Amino acid sequence: MSETVKSMIEAVEPLPSDQPATLGSRPAPLRHDGPADRFMRRLLRLPLDAPRASAAAARKAFRTSLLVTTVRCLLMYVVLPFVLPAIGIATDAAPVIVLPINVLAIAMIVMSIRRFWRADHDKRWWYTALGTTVIAFLVYAIVSDILQLR
Predict the structure, then answer these.
(1) Are 22 and 51 in contact (CB under 8 A)?
(2) Measured between alpha carbons, how far is 140 from 74 in angstroms, rounded to an integer?
(3) Dihedral of CA 60/66/11/134: which sign?
(4) What is the DSSP string of 18-87?
(5) More exposed terminus of the chain, fewer Cβ within 10 Å: N or C?
(6) pTM of this prediction exceeds 0.85
(7) What is the arithmetic mean of pLDDT over 22-39?
(8) Rounded to an integer, what distance in angstroms lies between the CA atom of residue 112 and that of residue 58?
(9) Is the pLDDT of residue 29 over 70?
(10) Positive or negative torsion for Cα 75, 81, 87, 88
(11) Could you state, in order of their start, the residue ranges of all structural domains in the chain?
């Protein structure tokens, strides 16, 4: 596993307590509640008064999005350009194969960003910036694939 992936997984450390974040019937207050945090929670359609999610849920979403990204990269950069032509299969179908995988990758990244925010994780802004950058590249790839299909 590369050092970058290891450092990203290590950044998703559990909160001091993985117990439910409710006190009685009211949700526990968020540790960070500035205007930028409230804006991001509204943008991600997270209720401001919802109970905090566990860090384990954030880790699971992060690992799932890494798995989808790994499969996507193997298809895009190994199987489609090298393996399929080597066994005599045309690569004209590549955009049709990769397009749904790119859309799934975007959905998984958004899901993991939401989980980081629901967990009120310390690295949520960092992961939001990273996820948004990857989403921008994926949108570019989707547009390129759609233009190739014409």
Answers:
(1) yes
(2) 18
(3) negative
(4) -S--EETTEEPPPS---HHHHHHHHHTT--TTSPPPPHHHHHHHHHHHHHHHHHHHHIIIIIIIIIHHHT
(5) C
(6) no
(7) 64
(8) 6
(9) no
(10) positive
(11) 54-150
Chain position carrying tokens 């690569």: 91
Contact 51, 17 (CB under 8 A): no
Compute, in degrees rounded to 10, the torsion defined by CA atoms 58, 64, 67, 73.
-90
Continuous segment of H or E residues that includes residue 109: helix 94-118
CA distance 58 to 111: 9
**The CA-based dihedral angle spanning residues 85, 141, 8, 56, taken in that order and rounded to the nearest 10 degrees:** -100
Which of 21, 114, 10, 103 lies closest to 61 in space, CA to CA? 114
Angle (CA) 110 113 114, round 5°: 85
d(CA 59, CA 55): 6
* Per-residue pLDDT at 24 exceeds 90: no
